[in-house]
């Protein structure tokens, strides 16, 4: 794929974009099939909440039927469970890889399909997200970070708004140190405990999850090693943490604060209502929520190991397996850990990586032909419908791209990483952890609406 893209980029600039894409599709018609399936997968993500609601209603009707064997009830339950499965956003891209794989098997044979889809890759990002979600969501890590944030929230008298503001600013910016998936996991879990558990109204709920996704997306830009879209481009363009902080990091920090304060002002009455509900409910810690310091230290070491070995799946998985064994040994001080959410998110990212990597034939030439404002706009729009890491990766393959153009691509990619679930790799983790607080599932349109204001603020501050 890289070799083909390099050839195209070196000579395609003399052709109009439409002609270039027609030529590319004519050389390999299967590219149109891959793009079509990718489009269907995107449409599926928007339909998923409706499918989940339909499945839930059908399952409820099945449960109301008279007990006893019934082929009709069994059929209805199968249909309901199928709708619930199709309504899980985390399985969408992995499911759509299946028909594409069998189409490729029919055309190119078994080995040809495996080679074309790149099924021999190591899926390091997906494996890392599974591992870091599992460790970061453990009870000792959560209590440790909660104790740090409690000191900040104490400045605001431990109010709901103080917790909310701390998590959406400091929690999100921590992604530049503990990686974006780690920051998303911890922030989402603590938001669930200190905010969503109180039952905020839908408008504030969607504003919060949209703001969380945007702030985590831009919050990883203070360093060169924590955010996937930054890592992939920084290596190719020679950007270090100093460069990133000067051109993106401090602006991202300002944007997280401004976006959070804007929503804090808009929803000030709702926060006052939640403070009234919170009184007496969450102020006292249970006596059992205490973990020996040596266990917390061990968890922090496991987290550091997984972050350090993110690009080496064998070591990353080895660390995860040892961590699971440590959980068993120290079970009196642990909560039961479920791998379901982490594995589903990893499945989502692996499927997105497989389908998204086959879209370079049209994304690459599009980026190559644009000026700086066009690059900013295009990377922003494409990011909403693709993983922003793929956008910056493809841009890094374009030869002779000017420095300001590189900055425009990066600004659009990270600023718009909160508009949809698929726009930034950690977003599926946040959705998986917070979806239970949305009775009908997280609406894609509601998420986009909640992320719109902080996205606009981020674009204004980050653009070169």
Report on the structure:
The chain is mostly helical and 464 residues long. It has 2 domains: 31-120, no CATH class; 125-462, no CATH class. Helices cover 74% and strands 0% of the residues. It is built from 23 helices and no strands. It has helices at residues 2-11, 17-27, 30-63, 71-86, 92-117, 124-136, 139-153, 160-173, 175-178, 180-194, 202-219, 228-237, 241-266, 268-278, 293-308, 313-329, 340-356, 360-368, 372-384, 388-396, 403-415, 427-434, 444-462. Helix 6 runs antiparallel to helix 15 and helix 21 (403-415) packs antiparallel against helix 23 (444-462). The longest helix is centred in the first third of the chain and has 34 residues, at 30-63. The protein is globular and about 65 Å long.
Write a compact overview of the structure shown:
This protein is an all-alpha fold. The protein is 74% helix and 0% strand. The chain folds into two domains: 31-120, no CATH class; 125-462, no CATH class.
Shape: globular
Number of strands: 0
> How many strands, which pairing sense, and closed or not: the largest β-sheet?
none
**Terminal residue distance:** 30 Å
Name the average pLDDT. Answer: 87
Q: What structural class do you assign from the helix and strand content?
A: mainly alpha
Instruction: Please report the number of helical segments.
Output: 23
Q: What's the helical proportion of residues?
A: over 70%
Radius of gyration: 23 Å
- What is the number of independent domains? 2
Q: What order do the SSEs take from the amino end to the carboxyl end, as H and E?
A: HHHHHHHHHHHHHHHHHHHHHHH
Strand content: under 5%
Model regions low in confidence, pLDDT < 50 over at least 5 residues: 1-13, 282-288
């Amino acid at each position: 794929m890289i070799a083909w893209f390099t050839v195209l980029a070196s000579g395609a600039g003399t052709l109009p974009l439409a002609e270039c894409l027609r030529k590319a599709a004519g050389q390999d018609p299967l590219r149109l099939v891959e793009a079509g399936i990718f489009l269907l997968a995107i449409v599926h993500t928007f339909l998923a909440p409706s499918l989940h609601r339909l499945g839930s209603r059908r399952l409820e009707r099945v449960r109301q039927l008279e007990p006893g064997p019934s082929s009709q009830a069994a059929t209805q339950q199968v249909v309901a469970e199928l709708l619930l499965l199709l309504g899980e956003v985390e399985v969408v891209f992995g499911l759509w890889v299946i028909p594409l794989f069998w189409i490729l098997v029919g055309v190119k044979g078994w080995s040809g399909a495996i080679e074309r889809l790149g099924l021999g890759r190591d899926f390091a990002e997906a494996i890392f997200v599974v591992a870091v979600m599992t460790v970061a969501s453990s009870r000792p890590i959560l209590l440790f970070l909660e104790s740090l944030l409690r000191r900040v929230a104490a400045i605001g008298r431990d109010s709901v708004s103080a917790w909310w503001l701390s998590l959406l600013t400091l929690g999100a910016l921590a992604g530049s140190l503990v990686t974006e998936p780690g920051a998303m996991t911890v922030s989402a879990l603590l938001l669930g405990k200190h905010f969503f558990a109180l039952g905020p109204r839908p408008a504030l709920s969607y504003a919060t999850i949209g703001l969380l996704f945007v702030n985590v997306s831009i919050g990883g830009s203070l360093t060169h090693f924590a955010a996937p879209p930054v890592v992939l481009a920084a290596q190719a363009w020679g950007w270090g943490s100093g460069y990133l902080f000067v051109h993106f990091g401090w602006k991202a920090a300002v944007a997280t604060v401004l976006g959070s304060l804007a929503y804090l002002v808009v929803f000030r009455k709702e926060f006052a209502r939640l403070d009234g509900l919170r009184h007496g409910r969450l102020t006292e810690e249970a006596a059992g929520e205490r973990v020996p310091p040596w266990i917390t230290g061990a968890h922090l070491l496991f987290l550091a190991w997984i972050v350090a070995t993110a690009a080496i799946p064998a070591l990353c998985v080895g660390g995860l397996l040892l961590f699971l064994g440590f959980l068993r040994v120290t079970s009196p001080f642990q909560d039961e850990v479920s791998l379901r959410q982490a594995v589903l998110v990893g499945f989502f990212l692996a499927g997105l990586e497989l389908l998204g990597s086959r879209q370079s034939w049209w994304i690459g030439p599009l980026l190559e032909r644009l000026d700086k404002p066009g690059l900013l706009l295009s990377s922003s729009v494409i990011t909403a419908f693709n993983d922003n890491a793929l956008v910056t990766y493809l841009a890094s393959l374009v030869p002779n791209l000017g420095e300001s153009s590189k900055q425009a691509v990066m600004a659009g990619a990270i600023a718009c990483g909160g508009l949809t679930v698929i726009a930034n790799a950690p977003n599926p983790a946040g959705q998986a952890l917070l979806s239970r607080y949305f009775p009908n599932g997280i609406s894609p349109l509601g998420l986009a609406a909640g992320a719109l204001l902080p996205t606009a603020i981020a674009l204004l501050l980050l653009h070169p």
